């Protein structure tokens, strides 16, 4: 299954080329540095994390 990578909305805001990308694949998220695509991190439970953010669990 191929995934669609999206850049973070605040990526490269300082003009230094830093960029974080994320791709959703079911209930997990893949996170990578666009300059080092070989180092992709798998984040299980991503939808649970987003639900907690929406509920305000981290306020």
Q: How is this structure best described in words?
A:
This protein is an alpha+beta fold and 59 residues long. It contains one helix and four strands. It has one helix at 46-55; strands at residues 6-7, 20-25, 28-33, 36-43. A hairpin with a 2-residue loop joins strand 2 (20-25) and strand 3. It is flat and about 35 Å long.
Concise account of the structure shown:
Helices cover 17% and strands 37% of the residues. It has one helix at 46-55; strands spanning 6-7, 20-25, 28-33, 36-43. With 59 residues, it is of the alpha+beta class.
Instruction: Name the helix and strand elements from N-terminus to C-terminus, one letter apiece.
Output: EEEEH
Biggest sheet architecture: 4 strands, antiparallel
The strand line-up of the biggest sheet is 1-2-3-4
- Tell me the distance between the termini: 36 Å
Shape from CA axes? flat
Unreliable spans are none
What percent of the residues sit in helical stretches (DSSP H or I)? 10-25%
- Tell me the total number of β-strands: 4
Work out the strand percent. 35-45%
Number of helices: 1
Task: Summarize this structure as a short list of keywords or feature phrases.
4 strands, alpha+beta, four-stranded antiparallel β-sheet, 59 residues
């Amino acid at each position: 299954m191929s995934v669609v990578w999206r850049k973070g909305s605040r990526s490269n805001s300082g003009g230094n080329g830093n960029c974080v990308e994320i791709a959703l694949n079911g209930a997990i998220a893949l996170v990578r540095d666009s300059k080092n695509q070989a180092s992709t991190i798998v984040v299980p439970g991503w939808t649970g994390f987003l639900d907690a953010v929406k509920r305000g669990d981290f306020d």
